[in-house]
Amino acid sequence: MEIAGRGGIVQKNGQNALAFLRAAWYTSMRSPSTGRRGNTMETHAQLNALLQDIREKTGVEIYLTPRGGEETAFFLREGDRAVEAYVAGAGEEAERSAKLAAYLVSVCSKEPYADRRDELKSVLLGDGGHWRAFRFMEKYGLTDGPCFAAEVVPDRLAAESIEHIRMLLEEGREQAVFTDTGCIGVVKFTEEDQTAFEFGTFLAQSLYEELGVKASVGTGCEVKSFREIAFSYSQAAAAVRMSSLFGGEGEVHSYREYLLVRLLEDMPRVRIEDYLEQFHVEGAAEIFEDEEMTATAEEFLESSLNISETSRNLFLHRNTLSYRLDKIERATGLNIRKFSDAVTFRVITILYKLLEKA
């Protein structure tokens, strides 16, 4: 058995080693420098959030309760506190993993707090992962719960817009910060009587009515905890970005609108070209480069392939609309009056625009 001091590595090959380790840990948690053992639950919650990020980024899994079998026990230090931790296995590889985790925890625990708004910006952008979000909650006494993020991009008066948004939020809990030039990140905790899309619509309307500002608003999916808010914000930012690329209608956009786009967006350019070739859409350029035809097709799809509704929305005679749909069929071979052809046309549209963007 090797013991390298209170911060060292212990190969747990017998009960005597484990008993010694636990006794040392208990003493450290009761010592005047570390505070009473009542802080253990809070310490473990913080460490679990940090250890989850370490596992995701390095592949090293550290756990705070023994699981049995061959494992290496060691100490993690957060400030003046020492906490018992374990890594599966023994020998040099397990020891390296333990030392890596101990080092990362030590470095993170010493990281100074930024200004509250700068800290929230880092949380929304995913810097530091779940651990930073958890630390933010602890630092500012934030009550956790289901929440979502929104991104607001005003066309002007950005400073006035963010101050107006802050007045609309629950003071102390819900917040808005600049995440980039002209981009405002908003944290909203879920209310039973208001969906994320309704909240986005409320923000857009309020900015226009009070400041005369037109804003593009993206909303992310609801997450169970503030610790996952960066995931929701990345969706909100993607919704705004894709709405500008694909000319989405209206001012408010949900990430769900562009799920198909996200599925196709990561394909390499060569694969996109292959798919377009397989669809035999040589004549598609004639349609996609004609803004009038593109707008007609998009409105027809948005109107659930209903000719009457599309005619009303576009202020077109039914015969004119039918002529345009026929033209699309001649150019692409797709009769988008049929659901299956409409789905294919939608996929081709996305691939074509992604190819232009690449």
Could you please describe the fold and organization of this structure?
This protein folds into three domains: 9-110, no CATH class; 116-262, 2-Layer Sandwich (Alpha-Beta Plaits), CATH 3.30.70; 267-357, PucR C-terminal helix-turn-helix domain (Arc Repressor Mutant, subunit A, Orthogonal Bundle). Helix content is 55%, strand content 13%. It has helices spanning 15-30, 40-58, 92-110, 116-124, 129-140, 158-168, 196-211, 229-246, 259-265, 269-278, 284-288, 291-302, 307-314, 318-332, 339-357, and strands at 9-11, 71-78, 81-88, 147-154, 175-180, 183-189, 215-219, 252-254. Strand 2 (71-78) and strand 3 form a beta hairpin. Helix 2 (40-58) runs antiparallel to helix 5 (129-140), helix 10 runs antiparallel to helix 15 and helix 12 (291-302) packs across helix 13. The longest helix has 19 residues, at 40-58. The radius of gyration is 27 Å and the shape is globular. Mean pLDDT is 78; it is low at 1-41.
